[in-house]
Design brief:
Elements: E1 6-11, H1 19-34, E2 37-41, H2 45-49, E3 53-55, H3 58-61, H4 85-95, E4 100-105, H5 107-118, E5 123-127, H6 143-164, E6 167-172, H7 179-188, E7 192-194, H8 202-214, E8 220-225, H9 259-271, E9 275-279, H10 291-309, E10 315-320, E11 323-328, H11 329-332, H12 341-348
The structure holds 6-O-phosphono-beta-D-fructofuranose (F6P).
Length: 353
Amino acid sequence: MAPAMRLGILTGGGDCPGLNAVIRAVVMTARGDYGDTVIGFQDGWRGVLERNAQEITLPAVRNILAQGGTILGTSRTNPFAEEGGPDRVRRSLAAEGIDALIAIGGDDTLGVALKLSEMGVAVLGVPKTIDNDLSGTDVTFGFHTAVQIATDAIDRLKTTAESHHRVMVCEVMGRHAGWIATYAGIASGVADILVPEAPFDVDEVCERLKQRHDEGLYSSILVVAEGALPAADRKAERPEVLAHGGARDAFGNLRLGGIGSWLAEEIEKKTGFEARVTILGHVQRGGTPTAFDRVLATRFGIAAVNAVHDGAIGRMVALQGPKIVTVPLAEGAGKKKYLDMSFYDEVARPLLD
Ligand code: F6P
């Protein structure tokens, strides 16, 4: 049997259904198969910087598989934006006697992991994001749950839209990529799906709605990803609904949310049809993960521990086809996986209804 290790673990960035399933699988595999000790750092990289850590025992993970959020807490703290951050990380990991750190996160968290691994820190990544916009893996856990939540919401919006003969705009998450919008839009059969990858022309959107109206379809549902933008030549018309006064997090990400409200107002102005907006927001990240996400997260957790024991440092676990593999962290961190527009054109566009 491989020698026992002291493994660190953290969850960083936006929370995501399935994080607890990863933590549970890591602790059960590490303890059960290798006799390891698992040290949990609180609130992402902040817990490492502040050496806020404690052992995660088996009883602590016994009932968390179906639980949303993360028992470790999370933050968008960036050690590279903090005075002496990388050195503080190193000192903290050394003081806790950590042999390898498992960092569960999206682009930003894994970007930090990559930089640290280039500086010699033993770190392994586990990809997560509801947005599904990370390269190197076919899918991230949390995405399936977010799509299901959005689909359920759109199904409900449909009946009220029909009763009132209204246009309903449903804004979903997806800062850079329109995966959630497209999957939920396909799954619920909507009139239009607007994604960040394809800037839209609001006049064209309105024309399509008028056409539906002429055909006797008096209610319409539009799904818009929070990162979707009007086409470049129309940008000037867009009020500052997207930037929340330009607020950014420690990784420089703009706070989004609001394109749906702007769009609903434009539609009312340009068509005269009554329009309403629903911004699903963080409800898409909350609550229990779907069975698919629980299974994927569990597979990632088991694979992460095995990978660390195999010496796969500086890598990230990933789903590729039916298999869980590891890929270099650089293949996931910093490389966005945008929506495949040929998929949109083949599956979403022809059935916009
Ligand atoms: O985790 C990604 C994401 O869900 C984006 O779609 C969204 O823009 C962002 O998180 C919101 O994050 P916060 O929790 O900081 O509001």
